[in-house]
Specification:
By secondary structure, the chain is α/β, with parallel strands linked by helices. The chain contains 16 helices and 13 strands. β10 (270-273), α12 and β11 form a beta-alpha-beta unit. The protein is globular and about 65 Å long. The structure holds adenosine-5'-diphosphate (ADP) and magnesium ion (MG).
């Protein structure tokens, strides 16, 4: 169904058209049919299926009709600042012809900019629970005015222990009958259902079944490899397939860090994203990756939560995840909104035993392609000590990676000339 068939204001339709959306995704069609009537929902649908626009369109349409100037506000609660920033971007794009004030509010940064935004009056507030509570406690954010509420990525919010904070936020809002409430999540766990049941108005439950959505658009490949050869195989795959960009997952923080360093030593422009990075650095890494300033991001599941990258060509499970849902979350980062994508998994001694559960969860065997010795590449970082102290040089390395003289010359996102330099600098420094 086309967006034009929705009975919504033309200014909003124009914003949707400018954004380039024509056909609704399944979750958009099913949710909007209910939410545009003002009803509450609890929606389950896989990552990458377009949930953001589903609630933003509802919220804009509601505000266009019900909001007096200085009147009621919309609140979107999200687990991470990255997600807050992404939703803010999407909202601002759709808002193009409407002129609502939209702001995102999260911890780890100063208050000045956020307070100024609130003073000016934000119609749509997007924020993480801690900062929202904080702003409310200081009297800057008036939760009494919230007329439409979205809880996005509810499963993540509750995984991350935000349940008590959400309860507190809900207590400060008007009674549920005075709000429209929407909850969105990739999985509807027990706590999400409980929140919706106890704090929403008879929410309609919408579940878009996962199998039609996620894995079938993604080309999956599985390689069995001894762990000491994993790096060689991955380098070989990266060289042979030369993706524009790739997101690599490891199960542990320290392996994400090491792997990214090893990739750098092999001439790839890579960075790591782990939970222990300071927030502003995390944001910078994500922004730079999205902007294509480097080709490979190595992340852990926790750090990559809520991370959404359009046009991601490849996901690599350097480690097979322990949790089968994480497998789906990970590979779902590619092939978003109809793009095709590839997900490659490397199974070795330590992690192959997770495969059985994953394959039964996704309802298929992951194809195992033929693999010759030529697929293994030399690892230039072998034998080099990658100490955590390398982090001190990190900003220096990063700058080298981004500098224009190191721009890829083959147009494929990788820097062939970087290896030598790295070796040279390594040895001349030591
Ligand atoms: P989710 O929240 O379900 O993980 P998003 O809302 O982030 O998914 O949307 C995933 C991607 O799909 C985004 O890049 C978004 O711009 C795009 N998208 C959303 N709706 C549509 C649509 N109707 N047509 C085309 N692309 C869409
Ligand atoms: Mg989302």
């Amino acid at each position: 169904m086309n967006f034009n068939e929705l009975k919504i204001e033309s200014r909003l339709l124009q914003g949707i058209a400018d954004r380039g959306y024509k056909e609704m995704t399944a979750v958009q069609e099913q949710s909007l049919a209910v939410t545009l009537q003002g009803k509450d929902v609890a929606v389950q649908s896989q990552t990458g299926t377009g949930k953001t626009a589903a609630f933003l369109i509802t919220l804009f349409e509601h505000m266009l009709h019900n909001s007096a100037p200085n009147g009621k506000k919309a609140l979107i609660i999200v687990p991470t600042r990255e997600l807050a920033v992404q939703i803010e971007k999407e909202a601002k794009l759709l808002n193009r012809h409407m002129g609502f004030a939209i702001g995102s509010f999260y911890g780890g940064v100063g208050y000045d900019r956020q307070l100024a935004l609130l003073k000016k009056g934000s119609d749509i507030v997007i924020g993480t629970p801690g900062r929202l509570l904080d702003l409310s406690a200081r009297g800057h954010l008036k939760l009494r005015n919230i007329e439409i509420l979205v809880i996005d990525e509810a499963d993540r919010l509750f995984d991350m222990g935000f349940f008590p904070d959400i309860k507190k936020l809900l207590r400060e809002m008007p009674p549920r009958s005075a709000r429209q409430n929407m909850l969105f999540s990739a999985t509807l766990n027990r706590i999400s259902r409980k929140i919706a049941f106890e704090h929403f108005n008879h929410p309609v439950s919408i579940e878009v079944t996962p199998e039609q959505l996620t894995v079938d658009k993604i080309i999956q490949e599985l390689y069995h490899v001894k762990s000491h050869l994993k790096m060689n195989l991955m380098l070989g795959i990266l060289k042979a397939q030369a993706p524009q960009n790739a997101l690599i997952f490891t199960n542990m923080r320290h392996s994400a860090f090491r792997l990214s360093k090893k990739l750098q030593l092999n001439g790839f422009r890579s960075q790591h994203l782990t939970g222990d990075l300071p927030q502003n650095q995390r944001l910078r890494v994500i922004d730079n990756f999205m902007a294509g300033k480097f080709a490979i991001l190595v992340a852990t599941d926790v750090a990559a939560r809520g991370l959404q990258i359009d046009d991601l060509e490849m996901v690599i499970n350097y480690d097979i995840p322990q949790d089968c849902e994480n497998y789906v979350h990970r590979i779902g980062r590619t092939a978003r909104a109809g793009n095709s994508g590839k997900a490659i998994s490397l199974a070795s001694e330590g992690t192959a035993n997770h495969l059985k559960a994953i394959e039964s969860f996704i309802g298929m065997k992951i194809p195992v392609p033929a693999m010759g010795f030529d697929l293994f590449a030399t690892d230039m970082s072998e034998g080099l000590r990658i100490a955590k102290t390398l982090r001190n040089n990190e900003s220096k390395n990063n700058r080298a990676n981004f500098s224009s003289k190191n721009k890829p010359r083959n147009g494929r996102g990788f820097n062939q000339g970087h290896v030598r330099r790295n070796w040279n600098s390594r040895f001349s420094n030591s």
